[in-house]
Design goal:
9 helices; single chain; two-stranded antiparallel ribbon; alpha/beta; seven-stranded mixed β-sheet; Arc Repressor Mutant, subunit A; 42% helix
């Protein structure tokens, strides 16, 4: 069993295909198939179930994938510690990011300084909904992720705080209010933004024992803003995720009582992070 075999197995499972994994790795599909077959023969189990267009993990394959990712993560940490001894001239950092707040407002400034300080570190960024970043951390697919705090399962580092706000069409009868309650937002069609703080918004309504009339679920904030601007729904988003400048199609109103939102970085165990990850966290904390 080699780390290369485990890396290929992990990537085939993630991409659900031999061809996609081969393309990502820049090797032939036959090499990918041979690596998987050799690994299965050595372990004496079927790791993947082959179908016409995709592959899926067997039951034992799902169990072993978590172990494989843990071993690959440990191997990466060892490489990073060796690279740290050489001045971090080489290495890899895998980051999970969600929504405009982290992907547009926080990450670019951090990455610009990080790449200037550590040009030899290869940075990989995966973007998805907030709950998916949590899943990636659990599965060890990323080294560090942007999350909505608090997040008790991980070691976390607070970066910024903003407020949750209500968005209404400009002509909405409630637009004249200076602030709105969650109850005020339950009478209209509601659009839920899956890309940002969807989990936080859902928890807010559940905690208040309220049920918004969710008619739309948008994977991108831009789609949510367009839906509100067309007068089709209301919503709750984070103030920090909104684009700069005027918003002619909708109005922004604070919630009453105010609902703060805190964004931070999360890792599985801060004592075991790689030097590249530690350097990223320290740099992120230093940027105001």
């Amino acid at each position: 069993m080699t780390l290369t075999q485990l890396e290929i197995f992990s990537l085939v499972a993630e991409l659900r295909g031999f061809t996609a994994a081969a393309t990502r790795l820049g090797i032939g599909q036959s090499a990918v198939s041979h690596a998987i077959k050799s690994l299965e023969q050595e372990l004496g189990v079927e790791l993947l179930k082959r179908h016409q267009s995709v592959v899926e993990l067997s039951d034992i394959g799902q169990q072993l994938l978590l172990r494989a990712r843990a071993m690959l993560g440990l191997a990466n940490t060892l490489r990073q510690e060796a690279a740290d001894a050489r001045g971090m001239r080489r290495g890899t950092l895998r980051i999970g990011s969600f929504g405009p707040t982290s992907s547009i407002k926080l990450l670019p400034a951090i990455l610009q300084r990080y790449r200037a300080l550590h040009p030899g570190i290869e940075v990989h960024i995966d973007e998805g909904p907030d709950r998916q970043v949590i899943q990636w951390l659990d599965e060890r697919r990323i080294d560090v992720g942007f999350v909505v705090l608090p997040e008790e399962r991980f070691d976390t580092f607070a970066l910024m705080q903003d407020q949750m706000v209500a968005l209404l069409p400009t002509a909405h009868p409630l637009a004249a209010r200076t602030s709105l309650s969650l109850h005020d937002l339950c009478g209209d069609p509601f659009v839920l933004t899956e890309a940002g703080s969807a989990e936080l918004v859902t928890r807010l309504f559940n905690a208040a024992r309220l049920a918004p009339n969710v008619r739309y679920r948008c994977s991108q904030l831009l789609s949510t803003l367009n839906t509100v601007s067309r007068g089709e729904a209301v919503t709750v988003v984070s103030e920090g995720s909104l684009p700069e400048g005027d918003h002619p199609g909708f109005v922004v109103r604070p919630l009453s009582p105010p609902v703060p939102r805190q964004i931070g970085l999360a890792v599985l165990d801060s004592r075991q992070v790689s030097p590249a990850t530690r350097a990223f966290i320290e740099l992120a904390l230093s940027i105001e």
